[in-house]
Amino acid sequence: MNRPFFLILICVCHFSELYAQENRLANESLQFEPTSNYRDVKVRGYNIRVNKLLIRRHQKLFKQAMEVMDYQLFKIERVLPNEAVKKLQQVTIWLEYEEPHHPCAVYHPGRQWLVDNGMNPDKVKCVEISNAENFVSWTISQPYMVLHELAHAYHDQYLKQGFENPDVLAAFRAAMKTEQYLKVLRWNGQQVKHYSTTNQMEYFAEATESYFGTNDYYPFIRPELELFDAGAAHMVEKAWGIEEQK
């Protein structure tokens, strides 16, 4: 009499286990934090997408990171043309507690790289602060870190032909032929190879730092950039609309 009920119960339990297992496997395959785990915070017209883990469990660090972010964006607001600032404000900045793929800050130009590396594809065309603690400490020696990353976004999204912009490429190639970037002074007193030598993207972002603020590699400030690499200074002026203001 009880056997059919017993069989039905076994079947129900079996399918429940399969359903639970499928859900578990699906969750395991999701290697990144879903966007629902973040909260959007507005700072000086920018959207800062903050990991809720940082907000809830590391409140002191969250406060410090947001204070540094506010100051970084304040400096950008002061030195860049208004039209350029408006464009940068369209770029979302993600703020993580500790994201393992990068030590501190990065710009994500392509979706496929994010997918291939198990990262949230919603971060495409965005700046990411990957490690809040490093962000707070490293911005002491790299005071225009956020401008550097936003410069990548500007280069990619707002310059003609993006990262293949002919003016940037021409300035980069001319500068690399001189080999003067192979040994420069860094903020800590060491003679090192300039980060600008990596590619035209880093060349543009580093020159932007030097022109508008203070870099951690020589040339540190605008007058030094103009003397050391006049082509870079002219490239920055044209790209960011400074020529139109002169």
Structure summary:
The chain has 246 residues and is an alpha/beta fold.
Q: Major sheet: order of its strands?
A: 1-2-3-5-4
> Mean pLDDT, as a whole number?
90
Number of helical regions: 11
Binned strand content: 5-15%
Q: Uncertain segments of ≥5 residues (pLDDT<50)? A: 1-29
Largest sheet: number of strands, sense, barrel closure:
5 strands, mixed
Query: For this entry, what is the oligomeric state of its chains?
Result: single chain
* Total domain modules: 2
State the total count of DSSP E strands.
Answer: 7
Shape: globular
- Helix proportion range: 40-55%
Cα radius of gyration in angstroms: 23 Å
Q: H/E order of the elements? A: HEEHHHEEHEHHHEEHHH
Return the structural class: alpha/beta
End-to-end distance, in Å? 95 Å
Observed structural traits:
246 residues; alpha/beta; 5-stranded mixed sheet; two-stranded antiparallel sheet; 7 strands; globular; disordered N terminus
Helices and strands in order, then pairings?
Blueprint: H1 3-29, E1 38-43, E2 46-51, H2 52-57, H3 59-79, H4 82-88, E3 93-95, E4 105-108, H5 111-116, E5 126-129, H6 132-138, H7 145-158, H8 166-178, E6 184-185, E7 191-192, H9 200-212, H10 222-228, H11 230-240
Parallel strand pairs: 2-3, 3-5
Antiparallel strand pairs: 1-2, 4-5, 6-7
